[in-house]
Design goal:
- This protein is an alpha+beta fold and 910 residues long.
- Helix 4 runs parallel beside helix 15, helix 5 runs parallel beside helix 7 and helix 8 packs antiparallel against helix 9.
- The radius of gyration is 29 Å and the shape is globular.
- The strands form nine sheets. Strands 19, 20, 24, 25, 26, 27, 28, 29, 30 and 31 form a ten-stranded mixed sheet that branches.
- It is built from 15 helices and 45 strands.
- It folds into five domains: 125 residues, Immunoglobulin-like (Sandwich), CATH 2.60.40.10; 193 residues, Sandwich (Jelly Rolls), CATH 2.60.120; 114 residues, Jelly Rolls; 350 residues, Glycosyltransferase, CATH 1.50.10.10; 109 residues, Maltose phosphorylase, domain 3.
Length: 910
């Protein structure tokens, strides 16, 4: 074949391919209802739908959509064609929903070329029990004498018969305490530690399960085990038992729909029976004792003889606090095999799983009846090679398994969890076989959304540690630590880490559930407790309302809104947010919040603890910190009020913010423009929250940079200063200083724990000291996510993948990379509600390359580090040749371009 013929064929094929791409039909995919895929048991009366557009084309926008909802093959609502670009959180507006009903929905869209997509594949949601009258079940308790906070876990069961063909069956379950359910000996669902932890008196979630496949024709059996959990088990260092109540109780309702149109309901009532089983004790802090000799085999099977079981007791308990669970449950995730078998100098047998995680260990073992295996959990080994338990304080964190002696037996606990990397094993006399032990990670099943990597392996390990710190501590509530006698929902930790959290995993529903409890537990005067769900414990019994911690009432909703564009969350939390500002206002005098207890910049580095720096103390004036966070919350209130159209509140908080800042300058700034507190945190908060007129800021910036230099490029910030430190440096033109802090390898720094072998974030900068001894065991956690807030700078500033405030939830994407620090490449990607967004830069041979992915139905403003547009190419062509790219200006060292959806490859000569 002649060369020109080959060329013609190739050109024709290219044109044909180009033509197909140009006119490729947009596809609709990734359908979510209330941020969940095919959710069961929603009690939201106007659920919201989200979907993604998929297209190989650039600059694809939705211009209209049409939704339709059906139930039992009948259409119950059609939106008609709606001229709107919304594809996230679009509310149902059809006829009132019915309880215990499955609905199917589909969507199609029109793009900006006027072309319609095909209808999406159907998705579904199922409603829960929408009215109190829909509950036919009664609360029941075992009535067993040993059924107490530190006692047994009772086993409950009931049999029933089905004589017709089952079309569908849904189990609605909750408990005072925790539950695990079976039908005909098979586990119901894959959730653990249900119904989780909430402010039970007013907010007790129930779960819904499709159990159609578990039912058999004829006789069936339901079996449920109850655990004390957070409801009545000992909580906190005070070991308070029965905090919410003394009875572990069950509420169970099985709604069966038959193919002939009839229904049947099987409920918890006095027909159920109860007995003790193999769980002798199971408690969150101390662990579980399981005696296999006491376990009744087949106890949840229909053929089991329960003649020796006793009747349960009906409990009179509230029903009006029930609501459907809409946050993702705790599930099993990664598994780990031991990477090392250790015999310590004292002769102890220890297994190292290589990762500090939260969960438990599954054990397979053979032995004689009565043999006892004790597994003790710990995060670290001490410098002498022994497992270190002191930082667990009063938590035993041990699981004890007593063998039945019938061949290979498999054990795992039920109603506890542990924070650990290492386990000490006692009771096995032979050498430990690593294959017999599996560590299982447990955390709320929040979808993984964010990815980050760069050219520095230590920073990559830091990102690993940030993610694992989040996973281990996001166990239904954002706990502070998962290993000791605490594990509480501290508000300060959550507030400071919340923006980082939104990148790594999809935490919209997770935070919404926790914020509901925050509003419930808020005091009548607006004060927000330090712990949510609230626990009245010493020394905080009569102390509430502290800056940074209680500001979770405003910070967490707003950060969640910015990440996901969830306006309904702001509307739901608005009264709580406003009440918190009211509390501060009442606590202040002359527009200064300088009264009451404050944590201040918690666990900041104190210079006097390390003579090598020979510098002033890093402790920051606590009321200066409070004034800055008050200003931040006031600004959030302005933004929230504007979002919801509350113009009077916008005016009120705008005036309040001016007065807060004026009072700050008067109280904390000398006439010559110097802060009264010369610490990194004081400088950072002053600058980040714009507490000063612009003319006074350059001096404070220089003081901050000078302070860092005096500390030999080390940070000295604590919980409240750390999240904003590198952001401030980059904002004011000192990104290289930010990189010096990020890449610092000696204490205090982010990479110091990495160099010391950390696989999660530590509570203190030196939880383990350079000589491998430990900080005060009274407060030294090796899995404590707050300092992982540096991740937010890594994602949104270092790589530069961000969302503009006018297009929250990545509807309008901002990409503004900050190369530096000797890093040669950095990449980040994020699964947004619209689809994957990504940015990555690379430096090589005097050129910068920037790869960008913008999902359909969004747009992006991209800041390209370059002297001018003339030195930039995209896809190997000058910017001027690209019709899909608009150059809009120049800002400092960046050329600004606007683009629509698509993938882009920019290169620029440095």
């Amino acid at each position: 074949m002649k060369k020109n013929h080959v060329t013609a064929i190739l050109i024709g094929a290219a044109l044909l391919t180009s033509h197909n791409i140009t006119y490729a039909q947009v596809k609709v995919q990734q359908l979510l209802c209330e941020n969940l895929k095919d959710p069961m048991g929603l009690d939201v009366l106007q659920p919201r739908f989200s979907w993604q557009l998929s297209s190989p084309q650039r600059n694809v926008q939705q211009t209209a959509y049409e939704l339709k909802v059906t139930s039992n093959a009948k259409e119950i609502w059609s939106s008609g064609k709606v001229p709107n670009d919304s594809s996230v959180h679009v509310a149902y507006k059809g006829q009132p929903l019915q309880s215990d009903t499955r609905y199917s929905w589909q969507v199609r869209v029109w793009d900006n070329k006027g072309k319609a997509s095909s209808w999406s594949a159907p998705a579904f949601w199922q409603t829960g029990l929408l009215n109190k009258a829909d509950w036919k079940a009664q609360w029941i308790v075992s009535g067993l004498p040993a059924d107490s906070a530190n006692g047994i876990s009772p086993f409950l069961r009931k049999t029933f018969t089905t004589t017709k063909k089952v079309q569908s069956a849904t189990a609605y379950i909750t408990a005072h305490g925790l539950y695990e359910a079976q039908i005909n000996g098979k586990r119901v669902g894959d959730a653990y530690l249900t119904p989780g932890w909430s402010s039970y008196a007013q907010h007790l979630p129930y779960q819904a399960y499709d159990v159609t496949a578990l039912l058999s024709g004829g006789k069936n059996a339901i079996g449920v085990i109850l655990g004390s959990g957070w409801y009545r088990g000992p909580l906190t260092w005070a070991k308070q038992k029965n905090y919410y109540g003394k009875d572990a109780a069950l509420l169970f309702q099985l709604n069966i729909h038959y193919t002939d149109g009839s229904t049947e309901t099987v409920v918890s009532d006095n027909s159920w029976k109860a007995a003790a089983g193999g769980i002798v004790a199971s408690e969150i802090y101390d662990g579980e004792i399981y005696d296999a000799r006491l376990q009744q085999e087949g106890w949840a099977a229909a053929a089991f003889d329960d003649g020796q079981w006793q009747s349960v007791t009906v409990l009179q308990a509230p029903m009006d606090n029930l609501s459907a669970a809409y946050n993702e449950p705790i599930r099993k995730h990664e598994t780990f095999k031991p990477i090392k078998v250790i015999t310590t100098p004292k002769g102890e047998k220890v297994l190292d799983f290589g990762q500090n995680l939260v969960g438990w260990v599954e054990l397979k073992v053979k032995g004689k009846a009565g043999d006892t295996i004790n597994i003790a959990h710990t995060e670290v080994m001490d410098k002498w090679g022994e497992p270190y338990f002191e930082n667990l304080r009063a938590a035993k964190a041990q699981d004890v398994f007593i063998l039945k002696g019938n061949g290979t037996e498999t054990f795992e606990p039920h109603f506890t969890f542990h924070g650990f990397r290492y386990i000490r094993v006692r009771g096995i006399n032979s050498a430990l076989n690593p294959d017999d032990f599996t560590a299982i990670a447990l955390y709320s099943d929040m979808p993984l959304t964010g990815q980050f990597s760069c050219s520095d392996p230590l920073v990559n390990q830091l990102q690993h540690n940030i993610r694992w710190g989040q996973q281990g501590n996001f166990l239904d509530v954002p706990t502070d630590c998962p290993q000791r006698d605490e594990r509480l929902g501290w508000t300060g930790d959550a507030a400071m880490f919340s923006r980082t959290a939104t990148f790594n995993r999809q935490v919209n529903n997770f935070f919404a559930k926790w914020l509901k409890d925050l509003a419930i537990d808020q005091a009548p005067d607006g004060a927000v407790p330090f712990i949510i769900p609230v626990l009245k414990i010493e020394p905080f019994t009569n102390i509430v309302g502290a800056t940074g911690w209680s500001d979770a009432a405003t910070i967490v909703p707003w950060n969640t809104y910015l990440a996901y564009g969830d306006t309904r969350l702001i509307a739901q939390q608005y009264a709580s947010m406003k009440a918190w500002l009211g509390y501060i206002e009442k606590s202040s005098k002359d527009d200064l919040w300088n009264t009451g207890f404050q944590f201040g910049d918690w666990l900041s580095y104190r210079a006097e603890e390390n003579d090598a720096f020979n510098a002033v103390s890093a402790v920051t004036d606590r009321y200066l910190v409070a004034q800055c966070f008050w200003a931040n919350s006031a600004q959030i209130m302005i933004n929230a009020a504007a979002l919801l159209g509350k113009t009077e509140d916008v005016a009120y908080y705008t005036d309040q913010l001016k007065r807060i800042k004026a009072a700050f300058v008067k109280e904390y700034v000398t006439p010559n423009g110097r802060l009264i507190s010369s610490t990194q945190t004081a400088y950072v908060l002053t600058l980040y929250f714009d507490m000063l007129p612009e003319a006074l800021r350059p001096r404070i910036v220089e003081e901050l940079v000078g302070n860092i230099e005096r500390y030999h490029d080390h940070l000295t910030t604590g919980f409240l200063g750390t999240p904003f430190l590198c952001h401030v440096l980059s904002r004011f033109g000192h990104t290289e200083t930010a990189y010096k802090l990020l890449l610092q390898k000696t204490y205090p720094s982010w990479l110091y724990p990495v160099k010391m072998g950390a696989t999660t974030i530590w509570e203190r900068w030196d939880s383990m000291k350079p000589d491998s001894t430990f900080q005060d065991p009274g407060m030294t956690s090796f899995n404590h996510y707050a300092y992982g807030a540096i991740g937010d700078w890594m994602y949104r500033t270092m790589v530069g993948l961000d969302t503009e405030d006018d297009g929250p939830g990545y509807k309008h994407i901002k990409i503004m990379p900050h190369p530096g620090g000797g890093i040669t490449f950095a990449n980040a990607s994020l699964q947004t509600y619209y689809g994957p967004a990504a940015a990555g830069w690379k430096l090589a041979a005097g050129k910068l390359s920037l790869d960008v992915e913008v999902p359909a139905n969004t747009k992006a403003t991209i800041y390209i580090p370059a002297a001018s547009a003339d030195v930039i190419q995209e896809g190997g062509q000058p910017l001027s040749a690209q019709k899909d790219i608009t150059v809009t200006g120049k800002e400092k060292e960046y050329v600004i371009v606007n683009v629509g959806s698509g993938t882009y490859h920019f290169s620029a000569t440095m």
